[in-house]
Amino acid sequence: MKRLYIFFAFVFLLHIISVLYPNEILNDCLGILAFLMFVISFHKASRLFQILGVLFIVTGTSLYFSADLSIHQLPPILAGNLSLLTLLAMLPWMNSVVAAGRFDRLLQQLLRGNVKDLGMLYQRSITAMMSLTAFLNVSSATISQDVLVDNLKPVKRQVANKFIMMATLRGYSLALPWSPLEVLVAMAIFITGVNFAQILPIMMIITIVMYAIDSMWGRYYFGRYHYPLDEDSVNTQKARHKRRKILQLIVALLSFLVIVVLLGNLFDLEFIFIVTVIVFPFAFVWSLFMKRFKSFWTIGWNKWKDNLNHMQNFIVLFVTLAFFTGTLNESPALQMIQDPIIAVSNAPLLILIMIQLLFIFMSMFGVHPIATMGVLGGISTMLMDILSPLSLAVILITSGVATVPIGTYGLVVTITSMSLRQSPYYITFYNLPYSFLFGAVGIFVAYLLI
């Protein structure tokens, strides 16, 4: 299984070729290869993703027999989500250049900052998390929690745990709505067909609003708790070095966003494909600029291989999800799902609320927001007749992101639960008001865009 990455990489390369040079035979081959990927991955996937996969297969099979589909039409359906899997396969290269540039250490330094109370540290923590999660993703949560657990030892344990589970999860979620590297964003754009340049300023505004509200609340709520000053953090020379690193990170992030937007406007290519093909060249050039290419390549090559060798969960999810949505779109069952929504089509606000509640409800039972978004993608055409593509994209992204701090069996909540030795339901409980507020802001903005 250590060389499984070679097979997966071959399939993803073929997918990139098929986008650049469309071919029916190649699409059929990709569908067969996607099925082989699923067969290979199923027994290595976690129990939760196995259950989701089986549910999608069973439901999709029943839909297949009720739809007007031939066996020859199945391969292209199975290959429907390969673009998302290819994007996931390339993300480790961006994480690696950040690690090579030692920006992960910057996060550690920022969390040991010159602050007098936990309120100031809370604001700094969510700022640091939001800044670096865009590149580091889940790694930022593990790094920050390790640092904060160590730093908050003098603080009462109950207060420290509450601080960590709020600051890290909320800061993490604030980096997701506007990041071109976030799969939820990519999938929402994939479903609705909106341009990234259209959605970016809207998501930035929502992020700023949520950041302002949560940081002010954090300063007020945790401001009563004293924080022991770290003398090393006030070192002037180190402070200058941190400022340079922060500036470099901001420039890199803005450059990446600009490149994605420009290429999206210049070429008639999908957003997911554009991000996928520029991740490695961008990371490569950035590593040369920082004079860290050797570290970048060493870290990146190992991370990339390891990531591909352990993609079983997402392969099972996306291949079976493609089968389910593909058969749903061709079956009479689609009309049965559409009828209740058509019945309330004159109340789009109600539909927006229903979408948000569906994401929250499903997340509490371990269903990944990507899976929920995929199910809604099956009826996206009808939803866009009521909501408009931009409105639907906003509600899908905000609904998905709002579940991140409360997804009881989600990856980040699970990591936090293990780090703090707390029940995931306890973590969900304390972040529930934040998630409902995030969802409410998303509903309000999406309603304005109808």
From TrEMBL:
Key word Secreted present: no
Top-rank taxon, per record: Bacteria
Keyword tags: Membrane, Transmembrane, Transmembrane helix
UniProt key word Cytoplasm: no
Residue ranges crossing the lipid bilayer per the database entry: 46-65, 77-101, 184-213, 246-265, 271-290, 311-329, 349-378, 390-412, 432-449
Protein name per its UniProtKB record: Uncharacterized protein
